[in-house]
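Sequence design from tokenized structure. All designs in this work follow the same two-part layout: the structure record, then the generated sequence. An example of the structure record is given first.
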């Protein structure tokens, strides 16, 4: 099976090559032996937009040259770029650019286009592909799970084992789960002096009442956060030390960038989030968050 970096790169190339050929998510999925649903999920997770919306925008951007540099009638241009009806094309065009194709020809108004997406070397990891940071607002949420004090030197290897143990054998004791498919691994109480931190293998709960005896609870307050996204060609159980080191190196690089508009509060709390329901038998998806403060 194709590596996720190569898969997404080829999808972007094939979209550009198929702008005039009515390319769609079903065609793309067939090319890579994936289900259309899973490809659409991967694309949206990676690029924060749907394949259909991206293809439509790229078609409309690509047609501008024909519209402005030829005398081709609008219906022919619409047909050339995969629109079956002139009125459908005109409505999509106006929605994209705020002006009809005919009025654009008359006025020569400047419009903003959506350029093609690209992947960069910095997105590529040995076992996956990595995106971010996005700056997002994370609302307050509650978690419950098992607590572990982990030395810094052991965190990369111990945390995945603890996560699997919790997910397979311990989470069933928690009854008021909000998202039963979502695992949250939260690191807090980071003690540089002692060289250790607390790691909670957990699930999100409606509230922190009636948590089973022996389990820990934590409330993550509403925070502006940096979010990173990872796609790996493996089961989420197989997130290994090498992949984790690659991800954290990329995160620390962003956090230590003096040109960044934000200060990363990694020394206070951070968490990873895995929606196991998104696993398609090939590609694992994971998100990672830490609070940030905007620099003055």
């Amino acid at each position: 099976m194709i590596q996720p970096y190569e898969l997404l790169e080829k999808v972007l190339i094939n979209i550009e090559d198929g702008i005039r050929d009515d390319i769609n998510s079903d065609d793309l999925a067939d090319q890579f032996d994936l289900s259309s649903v899973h490809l659409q999920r991967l694309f949206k997770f990676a690029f924060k937009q749907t394949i259909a919306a991206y293809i439509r925008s790229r078609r409309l951007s690509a047609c501008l040259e024909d519209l402005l540099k030829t005398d081709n009638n609008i219906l022919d241009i619409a047909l050339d770029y995969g629109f079956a009806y002139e009125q459908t094309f005109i409505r999509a065009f106006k929605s994209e650019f705020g002006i009809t194709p005919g009025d654009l020809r008359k006025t020569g108004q400047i419009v903003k286009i959506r350029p093609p997406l690209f992947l960069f070397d910095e997105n590529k990891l040995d076992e996956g592909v990595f995106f971010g940071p996005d700056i997002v607002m994370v609302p307050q949420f509650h978690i419950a799970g098992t607590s572990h004090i982990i030395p810094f030197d052991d965190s990369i290897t111990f945390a995945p084992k603890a996560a699997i143990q919790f997910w397979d054998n311990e989470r069933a004791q928690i009854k008021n789960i909000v998202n039963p498919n979502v695992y949250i691994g939260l690191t807090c109480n980071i003690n540089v002096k002692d060289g250790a931190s607390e790691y909670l293998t957990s699930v999100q709960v409606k509230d922190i009442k009636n948590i089973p005896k022996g389990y820990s609870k934590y409330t993550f307050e509403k925070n502006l956060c940096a979010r990173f996204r990872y796609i790996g060609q493996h089961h989420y159980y197989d997130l290994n030390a090498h992949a984790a080191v690659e991800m954290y190196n990329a995160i620390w690089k962003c956090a230590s960038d003096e040109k960044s508009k934000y200060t990363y509060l990694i020394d206070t709390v951070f968490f990873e989030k895995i929606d196991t329901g998104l696993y398609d038998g090939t590609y694992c998806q994971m998100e990672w968050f830490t609070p940030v403060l905007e620099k003055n």
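Residues 151 and 194 are 8 Å apart (CA to CA). We note this feature because it recurs in several other targets discussed in the main text.
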